[in-house]
Description:
By secondary structure, the protein is mainly alpha-helical. The protein has one domain (3-409): Na+/H+ antiporter like fold. Helix content is 66%, strand content 1%. Helix 4 packs across helix 7 (146-169) and helix 7 crosses helix 12. The radius of gyration is 21 Å and the shape is globular.
Amino acid sequence: MSAAKKSNILTKITEYSLPLLAGVALALLWANLWSESYDAFIHAELLPGKDFHFLVNDIFMVFFFGIAGAEIVRSVLPGGSLNRVKTAVTPLVATVGGIFGPIAVFFLLNGLIGSPDFSRGWAVPTATDIALSWLVARLIFGAGHPAVAFLLLLAVADDAAGLFIIAVFYPDPLFPVEPLWLLLVLAGMGVAFALQKAKVRSFWPYIMGGGVLAWFGMYNAHLHPALALVFIVPFLPFRPAGKRTPLLTKPLDGFEHTFKPVVDFGLILFGISNAGVAFSSLSNLTWIVLAALLVGKTGGIFLLGNLARLFGFPLPAGMRGKELFVTGLVAAIGLTVALFMAEVAYAEPSLRGAAKMGALFSFGAALIALAAGRLLKIKRHQENRNHDGDLSHESPALQEENASQTKACS
């Protein structure tokens, strides 16, 4: 098989996030057919005191969020779809709708068909699964569509709000939040800023210096350390669109070039680690969680996104009402993050199981969003690739020129 064909196959595999889908499918089958084996594998000690679940969620996902952060950085800087301050405000306002919409629907339905025992799980449907929603958004809109950057900013803000909700409303009495440790995050940002001012051209000092400090700060503060690089990536110098410099001479470009393939294929591990929920009995709680995600999150994002527009905060160029609606549907995929929320919200196994089933069924939002994209005739953004197969941020003419410059430098 020729190198070009191999490259095309790998591109298709990552474009449709087949590793992530394979991991989710494998976890579901494994957890339901051989549950003891699955639990033993997930919680087996691979490093002193650390299991597979920790290595995936607390270390590997750092790089996933780093790549997501890099996409957001590109979208908010010159030439990006969220570059204007007014445009960047809209997804943040929509995030508020994506949090309070599900809460409102949860309490409304709980008052009609629920029980006081259910009320502790109000935060379960506020979650958005970034990995799966990013996959579905790319399938519907195409990798370079402004709706993808809009969704990423919304989802990262949603995750940050989720950390706050867990810390305040579902604190672990054994591991209370210790905010003093967050000074290490500030120290990490200071290191990254100093490296930027010193014009350091390799991304490694940023990751191993600032990133490690931020990770330890969040870990010891008892907040999820997977977000550590979100605080560091904005300091990585990048090649702005239109600049005639070789592709890999800037740390942000080098970071994406190195870690994006690792993240794309490594998501099979994320699926295996997080999607292994055993099918349990259903109850009204299941349907309350599911409806709060599908109706509350979609409606909240759509309504507050449009409200922001009325107050003069526009959607990115290339997004209209129908793209905003479909983005809301995509954000309703709670799955793995909602599973975690259900775990901390309910101590009673039957309630936890019923809530987890609602979170699991929220994957159906992906199918609804794909169908809505077809019905609303949303056009996929076709993004060019450079000679290495990486997503390009420039015009084809500039890509060709940079390709020859890169060849000349090597």
